[in-house]
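Please fill in the sequence for the structure shown.

STRUCTURE ENCODING:
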């Protein structure tokens, strides 16, 4: 397993406080969020890395294990247990054990566990490595809770995707990773969701944004217009003298909130006023007369 320096990923020192970690993560998340870098694979990869780094370093217990054991931090509990067991054996005159020492290369210890062939390799159980997968969705796919089947290492896995899943969000399926060693538990499957941009609606959090065109006459005199939303058609009442760029909010017509049934964001509409073209002579005269009334 390749070592990833989580401190370097977040651009912080090992002495960084919890607040420093939080600030660094938020700054990078805003910069590398997939919504802002839709076609940048490198940015999406870095976004996944900063999420992973934040998950470990923002948790005091995980951070302590990472600082002590490096890339083998996920096996810290097994290592400590094995170390205590071997110390007991040594105290009772039993088999000597390998101690890498503070700051040593713990990989040597784990290699000896996996390949030593002795009593410890037969008894010690280790958790399998995690698998990573990417699942691409359309915006409309993320609107409703639904099921999909994905294939990982030749194995079909049927999953339920909750409504409101976000672009770049990672969910974990426990036990669907690599098999454990010596009968240990399997690792997990980490699925990163990649949601493509919609041609009409832009999603920010749980809110949706779109532009609606109205003609000049409706903008000036008021009236009605029918628009398409992600959940069907809606009839809008346009107020008289609506200005270009005017915005309205449709409460509850946005995106469902992830794993919060009944909670939904809002839809924000910006009006774009279309000016008439190909005017007849009669229409031109009327506009001229209207201009004289100013």
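FILLED IN BY: designer on duty
SEQUENCE:
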């Amino acid at each position: 397993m390749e070592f990833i320096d989580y401190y370097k990923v977040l651009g912080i020192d090992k002495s960084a406080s919890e607040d420093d970690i939080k600030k660094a993560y938020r700054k990078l998340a805003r910069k590398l969020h997939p919504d802002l870098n839709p076609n940048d694979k490198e940015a999406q990869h870095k976004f996944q890395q900063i999420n992973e780094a934040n998950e470990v370093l923002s948790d005091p217990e995980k951070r302590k294990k990472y600082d002590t054991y490096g890339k083998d931090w996920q096996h810290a509990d097994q290592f400590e247990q094995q170390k205590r067991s071997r110390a007991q054996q040594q105290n009772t005159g039993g088999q000597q054990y390998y101690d890498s020492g503070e700051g040593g290369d713990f990989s040597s210890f784990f290699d000896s566990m996996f390949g030593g062939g002795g009593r410890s390799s037969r008894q010690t159980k280790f958790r399998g490595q995690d698998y990573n997968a990417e699942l691409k969705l359309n915006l409309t796919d993320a609107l409703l809770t639904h099921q999909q089947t994905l294939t990982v290492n030749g194995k079909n896995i049927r999953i339920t995707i909750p409504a409101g899943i976000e672009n770049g969000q990672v969910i974990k399926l426990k036990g669907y990773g690599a098999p454990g060693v010596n009968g240990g538990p399997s690792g997990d499957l980490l699925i990163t969701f990649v949601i493509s941009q919609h041609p009409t609606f832009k999603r920010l959090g749980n809110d949706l944004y779109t532009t609606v065109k109205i003609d000049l006459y409706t903008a000036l005199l008021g009236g009605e217009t029918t628009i398409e939303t992600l959940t069907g058609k809606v009839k809008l009442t346009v107020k008289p003298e609506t200005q270009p760029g005017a915005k309205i909010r449709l409460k509850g017509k946005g995106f469902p909130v992830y794993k919060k049934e009944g909670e939904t964001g809002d839809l924000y509409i910006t009006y774009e006023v279309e000016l008439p073209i190909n005017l007849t002579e009669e229409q031109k005269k009327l506009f001229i007369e209207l201009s004289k009334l100013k």
